[in-house]
Amino acid sequence: MHATPASSDVFDVLIIGAGPIGMACGIECVKNGLSYLIVEKGCLVNSLYNYPLNMTFFSTSDRLEIGGVPFISHNYKPTRTEALEYYRRVAQSWNLQIKLYEAVTHVEKHRETFAVHTSRNRTYLTRAIIVATGFYDIPNRMNVPGEDLPKVHHYYREAHPYFGQRIAVVGAANSAVDVALETYRKGAAEVTMIIREDQISERVKYWVKPDIENRIKNGEIKAYFQSYLVAIREEEIDVQTPQGLITLPNDFVLAMTGYLPNFALLENLGVRIRDDEMRTPVYNEATMETNQPNVYLAGVVCGGLQTNKWFIENSRVHAVTIIQDLKRKKLSLQPHSV
User: Fold this and answer.
1) Could you tell me if residue 3 is inside a domain?
2) Is the same domain home to 25 and 65?
3) In total, how many domains does the chain have?
4) What is the DSSP string of 82-103?
């Protein structure tokens, strides 16, 4: 067991988020002798858990590895199920100190320490905070009447519930295209895509893009371009199109409109957000430290709304960068031998 301070003691590091990058930060703490705690509002690797059941990663398994634990996949690219099993094994191998199903509600700064308050009425004291919350937990809402109806889903799990149903898929990026194709092939009565842009996104996987374009061209999947939802009702939706407002019969709306970082948490921590289109948090790329001393960012959250910039494979290094900076700071505070 790795030493964990009592509730009245002070951690060197508190990590918010138990995704792969948050876990990598915890592993670096173990390697460097820093006391730490990982706090996660959901289950282990909660974002990956919420991915579609049959999802396959874009990356090969070796690029998803953390902590020197081999990730062996049965296929060239691993599945969601294999990833969940792998990260469980990593957590056990390193005996990571993680509090699951415990959300951070707010943080207070007290001189040289932070008081981190959680949904379980606990308070943890720490000298440094790493925000590794990803972006998949907060849906980007459409803000249209009826969005809160049970028929509207911002997450997609599998196609079976939509068999024989009239489906509206909102969006034109990878998630929307995958949902449209899978529900169409698994027996949805009708699949309609509602797309603000004038074409399918150029970022859609190159082997999938011709498939969706051909389904649309053949009329197997209906697409309304330069269009957006205006209202959602129990059995129909209103769509604003270039030709005017139309009403379509509908059973389910699958809003694949993207997700948001936890800006409220960043603002609570005093992290400055750039006033640009992507709302990029301010941080030092050499150390990953934000404008707030001893508050660091790791992983996808670094990109703000640009959620296609950072992935597991290119942000694993953030963990090493941050912990080395914290270790340097800690050593500099030690008394010099005479």
Assistant:
1) no
2) yes
3) 2
4) HHHHHHHHHHHHTT--EE-S--
Say which residues have a Cβ less than 8 Å from residue 90's Cβ, sequence separation at least 6: 23, 27, 66, 67, 69, 96
> Contact 220/184 with Cβ under 8 angstroms?
yes
What is the structure's pLDDT at 59? Answer: 86
Is the pLDDT at 168 greater than 90, yes or no?
Answer: yes
130-159 residue pLDDT tens: 999 987 778 899 999 999 999 999 999 999
Cβ count within 10 A of residue 123: 12
The DSSP output letter for 302 is G
Q: Can you tell me the distance from the alpha carbon of 257 to that of 266, in angstroms, rounded to the nearest whole number?
A: 22
In a domain, 126, yes or no: yes
* The one-letter amino acid at 160: H
Q: What is the pLDDT of residues 86-113, one digit of tens each?
A: 999 999 999 999 999 999 999 999 888 9
> 268 and 122, same structural domain?
yes
16, 265 Cβ separation under 8 angstroms: yes
CATH number of the domain where residue 176 is located: 3.50.50.60
pLDDT digits (tens, 9 = 90+) for 171-182: 999 899 999 999
SS3 assignment, position 164 = coil
Tell me the Cα Rg of the chain: 22
Output the six-digit token pair for 71.
């990730």
Residue 213, phi-psi category: left (phi > 0), alpha (psi -120 to 50), beta (remainder): alpha
- Rounded CA-CA distance 338/328 in Å is 20
Dihedral, CA of residue 316, residue 318, residue 99 and residue 263, to nearest 10: -110
